[in-house]
């Protein structure tokens, strides 16, 4: 029974020590910090700009689906739809997606494309060198065959 526990613990340790688990943990921490920056930009810059056309706080935009949506005796009369919160969250998502795409995905795709083109060029050069070497070897073979043929004629 103790052998199974040791092997399970060793397997768990190996799992934790793999590089991709650590990379994932770093990505989550960086992502959380990045989310704070994006939220601050949306709440501090984007929401006030959008709010300049109405109320100052984007989260306060709402519509009443039913009734007057006023507080009567401590309860809201009607059904209030808080679409400003949805708009704020949507803006946060779009800005986050744009930053990730333009600062991470697009540069990485361009880098990988350049690297693939460079590797393809190296492979093409390698093939040319291999063909040239093959031609040289064929010429050497032909010369050796010619020398043997001319040597036999003399004897």
Description:
The longest helix is centred in the last third of the chain and has 72 residues, at 83-154. The protein has helices at 2-17, 19-51, 83-154, and strands at residues 63-72, 75-81. Strands 1-2 form a two-stranded antiparallel sheet. The mean pLDDT is 78. With 155 residues, the chain is mainly alpha-helical. 78% of the residues lie in helices and 11% in strands. Helix 2 (19-51) packs across helix 3 (83-154). It contains 3 helices and 2 strands.
Alpha plus pi helix count: 3
Low-confidence stretches: none
- Average pLDDT works out at 78
* Helix percentage range: over 70%
Question: What is the radius of gyration?
Answer: 35 Å
> What shape does the CA trace take?
elongated
Through-space gap between termini: 85 Å
Helix and strand run: HHEEH
| Strand elements, count | 2
Strand order of the largest sheet: 1-2
Strand content: 5-15%
What topology emerges from the helices and strands here?
Layout (H helix, E strand, L loop, with lengths): L1 H16 L1 H33 L11 E10 L2 E7 L1 H72 L1
Antiparallel strand pairs: 1-2
